[in-house]
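Possible race condition, two jobs.
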Amino acid sequence: MEDIFYNLQAEPFRLSPDHRFCYDHKCYAKARAYMAYAFMRAEGFVMITGRPGTGKTTLIGELIESLADENVKTANLVCTQLHADDLLKVAAYDFGVDHRIVEKGELLQHLGLLLRRWHREGSRALLIVDEAQDLSESAMEELRLLTNIQENGKPLLQIFLLGQPELRDLVLSPALEQVHQRIVAASHLNALEQEETEAYIIHRLNKVGWQGDPALSKAIYPLIHKFSEGIPRRINLICSRLFLHGTVEQRHQLGAAELREVIEELQAENLAAGTELSREDFEVEDEFEPFSPATVAPPSPEDSSANETGMDEPPQGASPQTSEPTEAEVKPYLHAVGDDVVLEFDTATGNQISDTEKKKMT
């Protein structure tokens, strides 16, 4: 509806994750490169954590899309506190094991045969487990056992764990030390900073052919950031409702007054749980700049640090951008885990660096 009124090619602020709109803010490119590096190792666990709506699913979706020609067999699970045996069944069935097989030993046997056949055919298997923070310790241990399936010493299954920050606490628990040791890379997705929020909004609009209609006041960007707390999914919700409001009211300029109406509606409907805003927040002067698609350019990958986000979609047929970590970025260690865990491994040998080796290098 709003895309028609404003002559846009598509809806710019859809709520569902879509890697085609991916916005490379300052940490996303580096995180994606680490994920690609870990994927090339074809073993163990990869862990991605972040608050809901920060872009975990988007990051994985973009990676999988970039591997479309790599003969990768994937299974996607969303965990709602699955027990260990149920987790094994769901994973095996999603890979294609016959649903009539229910006994654990037989399931493992058939899954192993399937993985070995794929390996001989030149394919590899990837299991993606979403909402993994809800897994029990026994279920996590069951996943670790799946990574033991090998052919001539080569692991046949790699597992990506996606979850909220509690997942890191789970993996760091003493009972799951063996799981922790098998994490080859991990990344924690932080929220967008204020300037990134503005760049993110303009990025999405540019992707759908925005030509300055509606005109957006510079005053709304700090307010959107404050209310959304920099969470991309919340930004999408606010902007989607703002554009809908503009369409219904037939407004071709959207400023602080329009944004205030939208946020008050969202608060009344309990559809947003962001920071509460006062009337004083909206007592700002609107500033509508001349339209330029390049008004805000996304930060370059060189400015990256160690967090990431992104929830976007680009024009039909656009190919996702990929970037590999440079030698300088990954030597002598690869710091590939978020705020609490740092896993280090030598990029020349691919082996994890022991505590003794670390002391020699410092």
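Job #2 (started ~2 s after job #1):
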Amino acid sequence: MASTRRHTPTLKVKKPQVESLKGLSEGMTSIAKKNFELDYGSILNLLHVEIDDMALTTLAHFYDPPLRCFTFQDFQLAPTLEEFAKILGCNLEDHGPYVGLGEEPHMKEIAKALHLTSDEVSSWLEDKKNDRKGVFKGFSRGVLETKAQALLEKKNWKPFNAVLALLVYGLVLFPDVENFVDFSAIGVFIAGNPVSALLADLYYSLHIKYEGRRKGMLFCCVPLLQEWLTSHLPRKDSFVSNPAGLKWHQRMMALTEKDIFWYSRDLDGTEIILSCGDFPNVPLVGTRGCINYNPVLAFRQLGYPMEDKPDNSLLEEFILKEGEENPALLRKIRRAWGQIHKKPWTKKNCVAKPLYTQWVRERVEANRLPFDMVVRPLSPEPITMVPIESREKEQG
């Protein structure tokens, strides 16, 4: 009998080693912490996220490569710029997106961002060999942590905060080579806003693994993905405590759209980025490549209804892989981010109309899901999501 399951690569996530970073942050005064947050957002919160690697690797099995989302039995979820920005305490309008793929930061730029001298920063530079990509340039974890400790003892907060932030960028937000902060992470740090690059790296890493049917490690910010997933999972005690002892694949296969916590009021007042320039969706530049993402599939997470099957023209794919040269595309992406098209803020109502739900179910039937249904079958009729006000009261 033919399998009813979709083949997916076996992926793993690696928890960042953050104890030493937590130790450094615990030495900060309340004023230093406040100033850190003003300059770098809430990235220190990621050091305290409890990571469930099985939940995240199970989530990865639901990735739907052509659509850049996770497709479940009757709904879809897609990480968004706005959600990542809210988790990280970043304002998308404070700095432009990262578009520096392939560019090496200059030592003077790095020193200025760290509030240190060029001579000192240049003395830290080293090459790190890696079997996957050859030689990396950057700074070792040990050197940066030693400098941070010295600055902490002197209570020299401005450079201390900058060095600690760079450590978080290189070891937590953009991990690549173990215990090493490479130039790609440093480039995003200098740019000042990591949100678009983080979203790009997540989608890019998932897509490359699926395209090559390759098992291995997802290169993304694991604590951020955990926070995003947790924000949408059911809040009911029967799900959280899991008294039946179900495995994660059973729990996720059983989810329907009525179970999901769709929208956070923290996003009230946020204008949604729908597309950029001539792109029908949003082009993202990461530390390894470029890829599009489709906000139209995430409307419910952003407080808007899913009315119908999305227009195929709005889901147009592109990807620029690591090592590929396409200066014209990079120029087009940079220009596009100068012309952002937004959806104005309106009253929120996270409904899914039957036409959309039927489209999702038809896609599931054609492409299959990654695990067998063992807990709860599909509902016989599409379920229309109640308005968010009622939903919050129900789950509260």
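The CA atoms of residues 14 and 217 lie 7 Å apart.
Logs attached separately.
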